């Protein structure tokens, strides 16, 4: 039994917060005006042509404000239409050009005269109503007694009943005079649908709408549509983006009743639901129930991705708009906080799914992008790290320029911006003169330049080498002295060498190479085989990362974000990414290679291999794969020629027959001699054999069918 999610029973026309409407009986349009005014509605429509502006010959009546009210025009008790009542507020505009004309006007309205004349100010007011695809104009005549005519003062209003309109339509209303003495007034209004009005029993087009209830089913969300078994209706889930058009996500024609389950990870604030009967000219009703859901906002930030584009461009991809700001920051090699470059660089409001440009002349791996809201920092990416390599030990110098070309330089450090020629006890202050000379001699890279200042990235490697040169020389001399002393006692030397060898091995184990295993989860037995391989490689030693051991992180971050973080860490540490080919993996690769421009089909929430192809394939296509990647497949599960040719630019090994060569590539320069390597290969082969036997299937018995999407949860 589903638990009510947020007391939301959307019967699509019986919302708890509704608007009661006044009823207007009869099909005839009418007009009425404020006390003291007289008005008349001309019969028939008039042409909706405002005409050109003309000068007022004196005081004239003009509309100053439009006000609307929704009413029901009823032909019978249960046969009503939505109607828009319009009130036009009027005022006197302009002055008498000749004082004598004003005096004559006042005398004509003087009640003390023996024969007073009914002097008044008259105007023709046009109301133009447009609701796609129709337009309708009416002409109202209004007269104001001379006693109420005061230039610049309001005289009252005239009310028109009423313009009929469709539920949920957008209407536009204009008002102006004939002739036109000023710019016309206009008003645009979005009319409510059956949900926002108490009209379920009065407007016949609302009778056939399905009832919808949103409730919780554990962590997931359940949509229950309570309609008759014969009724057919359309259901659409879409992302209602503020910045751009509506983006459809899922659509289906169904027959009621239906229950649809949405995964809680699919919820985002702009996810909306639209439902309508499959009948001609039926009313479509939309709701967006997740705007204030905390889970939806968390999912939105998890789904957001920063992407680096050519020519200093970048883009924040997200399904919904994000009220956030972006700033550039400098990430030092020591792993401290990323230091914002504001000022001198400004903050920028983020527009999702739109290409933005960095205000920099050149890229640098230490320059990162921070996206934050008023509450906290939401995400940070060093977008140039993949193309320009790992972080560098560079010092960022900020140049500030004054009005008389008197500039100053300071170094950006965690404690602040340290002037180069200061007596502070920081690294930048100690090397201030040398850094200043590097800037003047062109050894620093200029990242940004303007009239206000500039940013320079100065390498610090040479200063580190100079400082450690004497230390290394002293160590070498000390090592030579110790070696001579040890030669005097040969027997103790042997024991010492034995201990030294063990320490070196222990140190190598602690500095073991990193390896990231990527595979396609074809079935449970293949996942067990991958787990057996990962466990065996950890004994070599190797530091192995595989999604089997990181299910919680995958669910929290998403498969693509988890792979991106693991790949960057592995490559920065000099590790290798292992592509484990299987029938399912080969099928996914061919699918991407055949149509790289279309979106890939959906996969499971923990399928890191499918999510990683968007990052892996560019490395192979652009020639960056050698040295970073290695391929492998199992003898009994895949023929040698099944691996796509694109991936043969890196070594591809058959397991377990080529285990020694495979292990040698994985361990890199620290790999042991061939005899020791063969022993380790034999150990790994014995560990793999039980899992490999259980994984073997006859041809045609393998399957990779998996499904996702709202349709997987539809049941009657």
Automatic annotation (TrEMBL):
Record keywords, A-Z: Cell membrane, Disulfide bond, Glycoprotein, Inflammatory response, Membrane, Receptor, Signal, Transmembrane, Transmembrane helix
GO molecular function, one term: interleukin-17 receptor activity
Protein name (record): Interleukin-17 receptor C
Membrane topology of the entry: Single-pass type I membrane protein
Keyword Transferase: no
Subcellular localization: Cell membrane
Alphabetized PROSITE patterns for the sequence: SEFIR
InterPro entries attached to this UniProt entry: IL-17_rcpt-like (IPR039465), IL-17_rcpt_C/E_N (IPR027841), SEFIR_dom (IPR013568)
Source organism superkingdom: Eukaryota
Gene Ontology cellular component annotations, sorted alphabetically: plasma membrane
Main localization (coarse): membrane
Chain segments annotated as transmembrane: 468-488
Subunit (UniProt): Homodimer; disulfide-linked. Heterodimer with IL17RA. Heterodimerization with IL17RA is independent of the cytoplasmic tail. Associates with non-glycosylated IL17RA constitutively. Binding of IL17A and IL17F induces association with glycosylated IL17RA. Forms complexes with 2:1 binding stoichiometry: two receptor chains for one interleukin molecule. IL17A homodimer preferentially drives the formation of IL17RA-IL17RC heterodimeric receptor complex, whereas IL17F homodimer forms predominantly complexes with IL17RC homodimer.
Residue intervals of the SEFIR domain: 512-664
Pfam families assigned: IL17_R_N, SEFIR
Residues spanning the signal sequence: 1-20
GO terms for biological process, alphabetical: inflammatory response
Transmembrane helix among keywords: yes
Source organism: Ovis ammon polii
């Amino acid at each position: 039994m589903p638990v009510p999610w947020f007391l939301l029973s959307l019967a699509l026309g019986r919302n708890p917060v509704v608007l009661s409407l006044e009823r207007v009986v009869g099909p005839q349009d009418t007009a009425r005006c404020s006390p003291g005014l007289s008005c008349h509605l001309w019969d028939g429509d008039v042409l909706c042509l405002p005409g050109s502006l003309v000068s007022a010959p004196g005081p004239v009546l003009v509309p100053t404000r439009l006000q609307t009210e929704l009413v029901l025009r009823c032909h019978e008790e249960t046969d009503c239409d939505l109607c828009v009542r319009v009130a036009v507020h009027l005022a006197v505009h302009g002055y008498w050009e000749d004082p004598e004309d004003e005096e004559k006007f006042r005398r004509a309205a003087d009640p003390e005269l023996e024969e007073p004349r009914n002097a008044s100010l008259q105007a023709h007011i046009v109301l133009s109503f447009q609701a796609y695809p129709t337009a309708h104009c009416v002409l109202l005549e209004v007269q104001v007694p001379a006693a109420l005519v005061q230039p610049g003062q309001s005289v009252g209003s005239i009310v028109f009943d009423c313009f009929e309109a469709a539920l949920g339509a957008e209407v536009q209303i204009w008002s102006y005079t004939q002739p036109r003495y000023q710019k016309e007034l206009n008003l645009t209004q979005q009319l409510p649908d059956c949900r926002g009005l108490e009209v379920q029993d009065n407007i016949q087009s609302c009778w056939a709408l399905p009832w919808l209830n949103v409730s919780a089913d554990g962590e997931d969300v359940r949509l229950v549509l309570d309609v008759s078994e014969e009724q057919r209706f359309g259901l659409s889930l879409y992302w209602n983006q503020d910045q751009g058009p509506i983006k459809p996500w899922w659509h289906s024609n169904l027959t009621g009743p239906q229950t649809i389950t949405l995964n809680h990870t699919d919820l985002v604030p702009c996810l909306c639901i639209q439902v309508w009967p499959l009948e001609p000219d039926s009313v479509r009703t939309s709701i967006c129930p997740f705007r204030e859901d905390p889970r939806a906002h968390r999912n939105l930030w998890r789904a957001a991705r920063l992407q680096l584009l050519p020519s200093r461009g970048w883009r924040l991809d997200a399904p919904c708009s994000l009220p956030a700001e972006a700033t550039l920051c400098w990430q030092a090699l020591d792993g401290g906080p990323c230091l914002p470059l504001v000022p001198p660089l400004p903050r920028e409001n983020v527009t999702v799914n739109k290409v933005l440009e960095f205000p920099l002349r050149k890229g640098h791996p230490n320059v990162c992008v921070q996206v934050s809201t008023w509450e906290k920092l939401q995400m940070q990416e060093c977008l140039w790290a993949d193309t320009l390599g790992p972080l560098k030990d560079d010092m960022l110098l900020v140049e500030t320029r004054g009005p008389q070309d008197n500039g100053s330089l300071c170094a950006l450090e965690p404690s602040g911006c340290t002037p180069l020629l200061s007596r502070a006890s920081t690294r930048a202050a100690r090397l201030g003169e040398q850094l200043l000379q590097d800037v003047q001699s062109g050894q620093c890279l200029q990242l940004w330049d303007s009239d206000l200042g500039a940013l320079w990235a100065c390498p610090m490697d040479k200063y580190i080498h100079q400082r450690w040169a004497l230390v290394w020389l002293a160590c070498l001399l000390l090592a030579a002295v110790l070696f001579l002393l040890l030669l005097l006692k040969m027997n103790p030397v042997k024991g010492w060498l034995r201990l030294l060898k063990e320490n070196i091995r222990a140190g190598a184990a602690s500095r073991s190479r990193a390896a990231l295993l990527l595979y396609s989860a074809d079935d449970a037995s293949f996942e067990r085989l991958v787990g057996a391989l990962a466990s065996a490689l950890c004994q070599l030693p190797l530091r192995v990362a595989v999604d089997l051991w990181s299910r919680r992180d995958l669910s929290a971050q998403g498969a693509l974000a988890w792979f991106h973080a693991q790949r960057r860490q592995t490559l920065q540490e000099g590790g290798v990414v292992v592509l484990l080919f299987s029938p399912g993996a080969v099928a996914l690769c061919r699918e991407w290679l055949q149509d790289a421009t279309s979106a890939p089909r959906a996969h499971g929430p923990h399928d890191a291999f499918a999510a990683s192809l968007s990052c892996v394939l560019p490395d192979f296509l652009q020639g960056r794969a050698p040295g970073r990647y290695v391929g492998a497949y199992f003898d009994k599960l895949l023929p040698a020629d099944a691996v796509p040719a694109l991936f043969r630019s890196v070594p591809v090994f058959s397991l377990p027959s080529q285990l020694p060569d495979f292990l040698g590539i994985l361990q890199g320069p620290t790999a042991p001699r061939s005899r020791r390597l063969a022993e380790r290969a034999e150990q790994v082969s014995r560990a793999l054999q039980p899992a490999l036997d259980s994984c073997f299937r006859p041809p045609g018995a393998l399957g990779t069918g998996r499904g996702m999407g709202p349709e997987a949860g539809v049941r009657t």
